[in-house]
TrEMBL record:
GO terms for molecular function: sulfotransferase activity. It is an enzyme of class 2 (transferase). Its EC number is 2.8.2.-. It comes from Digitaria exilis. Keywords: Transferase. Belongs to the sulfotransferase 1 family. This is Sulfotransferase. The lineage of its organism: Eukaryota, Viridiplantae, Streptophyta, Embryophyta, Tracheophyta. It comes from the Eukaryota. Residues 59-320 form the Sulfotransferase domain.
Length: 323
């Protein structure tokens, strides 16, 4: 009862706050600007209690990603890496469940189907494997102070935008948003969890400051050499592959299990979907579109590509981050 009341209070606090913040229409849901980050209103309501109630532990592993940059892939890889003593690859939970169902999203807990607040996260044994789309600035400062290990994944912005545009039109209920309109919003920083440049840069700087605790990855890097990336992630997370495992080819099999080809062809990923707060339903299949590098050329004009490249160069100038 007390828990329900506190949830109602949190909801109305969120509603009152949202009513005072800038809001922009256009994407599949409106976006609200909170502390320089554009969030879907329901995500914002969820993120408020996260800031107060989420208790980071030093053993936590946090998969932080910008949307449409390979979150599904990273979840599969990190889950398979950290749980490989528990499951044989031939009889693996990822063959039966979508990767989003095996890794807990921090900001989705408050209104999750599991019912209510962050107790579920508290109940998980260490090391907890958690995920978030929140920028570092919206996570509790304890995440950095406790020394949680963060694996961050981003993607070349033209491809991230292209993936996002397709996804938005898959999940929206009304008329599709045009490429031009979505592109203009993206370049103004107005995308879910955007501006994308702030998101990328916050984790990039944290990686430079604390490389032992923050691993910064790009989608393209994993695509280029998935085996190398998997070994790197495993080592970073303190689950390195032994010589015996490598000589048996366990690492190669893990890469194959998590590949686009294998995951996208499983029934678990071809059917069903995920309920997200705010009446949003994400079909599992919409999380596996093409899985290619450079698909932007098939959708965006050359001029759009150049415009975004110039913006990216401007925003990342002097940071050392390049695409
Ligand atoms: P495309 O839309 O370019 O195909 P997220 O998981 O963050 O929502 O990102 C979705 C993007 O990752 C989509 O890109 C999707 O196809 C791609 N993706 C999903 N699973 C993948 C996998 N196992 N390997 C490579 N790419 C994958």
């Amino acid at each position: 009862m007390e828990q329900l009341q506190s949830r109602i209070d949190e909801e109305s606090h969120g509603d009152n706050l949202i009513a005072t913040l800038p809001t922009r229409e256009g994407l599949s849901t409106p976006l609200t600007l909170f502390k320089n980050c554009w969030l879907r209103p329901q995500v914002l309501k969820n993120c408020l209690p996260v800031q107060d109630k989420f208790m980071p532990r030093s053993e936590d592993i946090i998969l932080a990603t910008h949307p449409k940059c390979g979150t599904t892939w990273l979840k599969a890889l990190a889950f398979a890496i950290t749980n490989r003593v528990h499951y044989a690859l031939a009889d693996h939970p990822l063959l039966e469940k979508n990767p989003h169902k095996v890794v807990t999203i921090i900001e989705a807990q408050f209104l999750s189907e599991r019912g209510g607040d962050l107790d579920y996260i508290e109940s998980l044994p260490s090391p907890r494997l958690l995920a978030t789309h929140l920028p570092l600035s919206l996570l509790p400062s304890g995440v950095c102070k406790a020394g949680c290990r963060i694996v961050y994944l981003c993607r070349e912005p033209k491809d991230a935008f292209t993936s996002m545009w397709h996804f938005e039109n898959k999940v929206r209920k009304g008329d599709p948003i045009s490429l031009d309109e979505a592109f203009n919003m993206f370049c103004e920083g107005c995308s879910s969890f955007g501006p994308f440049w702030d998101h990328y840069l916050q984790y990039w700087k944290e990686n430079l400051a604390r490389p032992q605790e923050v691993l910064f990855l790009k989608y393209e890097e994993i695509m280029l050499d998935p085996l190398k990336a998997v070994r790197k992630i495993a080592k970073f997370l303190d689950f390195p592959f032994t010589e015996e495992e490598e000589s048996r080819g366990d690492d190669k099999e893990l890469v194959r299990l998590c590949s686009f080809e294998v995951l996208s062809n499983l029934d678990a990923n071809k059917t069903g979907g995920i309920e997200r707060p705010g009446n949003m339903f994400i079909e599992h299949s919409s999380l596996f579109r093409k899985g290619e590098v450079g698909d932007w050329v098939n959708h965006m004009s050359k001029e759009m590509g150049e415009k975004l490249d110039i913006l990216v160069e401007e925003k990342f100038k002097g940071s050392g981050l390049q695409f």
